[in-house]
What does this fold into?
Amino acid sequence: MLSVITLQWALIRLSLLPIIVATLIGVVRFRRLTPGLRYLAILVGVVLVLEVISRLLALRHQPNLFLMPFYTAAEFGLLILVYERALAAPLFTRWAPWLMGAFIGYVVLDSWLLAELTRFRPSQQVVGSLLVLALVGLYYRKLLNELRVRHLEREPMFWVSTGLFVYYLGYIQIGLFSNYLLSYSSQLNSNIWAAHALLSMLLYSCYSLALWLHPQK
Amino acid sequence: MLLAAVTLVAFLVTYQKRLLRQQLELRTAEAAYQRQLLGAIIEAQERERERIGRDLHDGIGATLVTAKLLVNRLAVTSSPAAAADSQPGVLKLLQEIMGTVGQEVRNISHDLYPVVLSRFGLAEAIQHLADGCHETGTLAIDLALDYPRSLPLAQELALYRICQELIHNSIKHAHGATLLTVQLQQRGVHLELVVSDDGCGFVVDPPTAVRSTTSGAGLRSMEVRAQMLQAQLHRTSAPGQGTRTVVELETGGF
It folds into this structure.
């Protein structure tokens, strides 16, 4: 039992490591990145800052869930910019600012109306996840329709999309039951968040790979 | 996680299948295009052989037969008095015939390989082409040559052949044309050859991956030469609005 708990905590603690690695790669390669991937590097940096603040607050036994709307809004906004470049579709480019504005507006409104610092915001998590999954779906559709990429494993945006796809498909379920888990069982809660840590490590490993790869011409 | 894995695998399999199909289609199109090019080259060779054969038979051959008849006439003239009367006239005629044969040999030789090009360069060779066209009196030619730096002979020969074909096409097909414009302009590494006429024009085929087999051997031959030069060949035309062909190339990268 003790070893399981230790493993859970180790996973949760270790989940910061891929974010640090991705940020370092982003900083080192920033000048050589395409404009879309530069937004991804910025996103990784923002996530690292928020993650560090959140862990510091947790260490001091202070609530850190108020950071979640910032995280959700920043992540979605920057991902929109990443996919705007990747999709390069006039229709999407026209609607992207409206989509970004609408979602950020919704997050602000929802957080303001539900001003509780100690609870998750499942609606934001689920809506955000669905929108990101839709972006990934659009990118996969573009890949399939255009067939311009000969080697998918050398395409940075394929790794970004794959990481996001796996992560958000898992996270949407965690987000949906996050508040319930919080009150139902601390053991199950820890297990689920350990699984989330694994998904997060996978996502940031994909980001690291995408930032490391040289985009194909 | 299982759903994600299954979806990803399905995506990868579909992607690879589509990619393979696309590559197969591309290869088939490339092979068809190569076959067409080969056909065009063989056709052009045969056309050229036929033309040389016809020139030799109808021109030099006929003239030499006439010369032979005259030589025979000299040989069979028996009486010295008759020979003395007719010899100067026959010899003069023979001299004229030999001169014509020489000129015809030079014409055929020039068509086979333009000596002017190798001796005096592309601008002079195009000028020579224009003079030839002018002599036929079918079309007025407006020539603008700005060609300060020579290119390698292989490139100049390809450009010359393209220009020759375009002029020939205008004379042959541009019904109602009154003016043929030929421009050769060199700006730094950029070279542009423009041949345009104000003739009847035609409907240009839309660009396709594989060139239609109905397009003429001359057009295909020009396209092959443009490809060899790594040049861009643009053709614009419309019924009643003449035809304009532009060949553009960057001379630095050849």
User: Anything to note?
Assistant: The interface with chain B takes residues 140, 143-144, 147, 150, 152, 162, 165-166, 169-170 of chain A (CB under 8 Å).
